[in-house]
Amino acid sequence: MTEFFNLLLQHTITMMAIVDPLGVSAIMLSLLPQSTTKEHIDKIARKATLTIIVAFFVVLISGNFLLNLFSIEIDSLKVMGGIILLFTAIKMVQGSMESKNQTEEEREEAIKNDEFSVIPLGVPITFGPGIFATIIILRGHSEGFISIAALIMAYLIVALSVYLAFKNSIYIRKYLGITGQKIVSRLMGLIVGAIAVQFIVGGVSVLVKHYM
């Protein structure tokens, strides 16, 4: 039981930092028109959360199959995933994850289109290459029911956090402000950067021992 809770805590912190619910909720608001109602935001939150949950289980189930299919070692993926995470972390720290400016007409079209909740909000804004690589890496190191259950539970906690952040994004922006959300996102960027370095160093050290 102790192992389960330790893994649950580790996986939750890791994926929470990478997904950054507060940061993506700010991006969501920037993509939507000012006239968006609370009911529309609730609907978007539900669909986007369902999207990232489905994406998680697809990656969880097919991750090892893809590695075996292309004969990719988990440590090679750790290095590449670490590099992707490092670039993501740099963008988060620099504040360049925010969306580009859109016209009000484009924003109105986005809210009318149900696919907005799936693409781009669900994938790739919330469920991007960084979390994709992380899930495959964590799944590759998960052996037995306890570790896999901890990974699934941790991601569901992250997904719930995303849903709550999206659903209450208007209130979060009201109390934290744009500056507050950016500060949180930059702090998450530092954590993601540290995780990226660990992935890269860990993967490189094993590969060097294996091939040298």
From TrEMBL:
Recorded superkingdom: Bacteria
Keyword terms: Cell membrane, Membrane, Transmembrane, Transmembrane helix
Transmembrane segments: 12-32, 44-67, 118-138, 144-166, 187-208
Cited InterPro entries: Multi_antbiot-R_MarC
Recorded topology in the membrane: Multi-pass membrane protein
Subcellular location: Cell inner membrane; Cell membrane
Main location: membrane
Any single Gene Ontology cellular-component annotation: plasma membrane
Similarity comment text for this entry: Belongs to the UPF0056 (MarC) family.
Protein name: UPF0056 inner membrane protein
Biological source species: Sulfurospirillum deleyianum (strain ATCC 51133 / DSM 6946 / 5175)
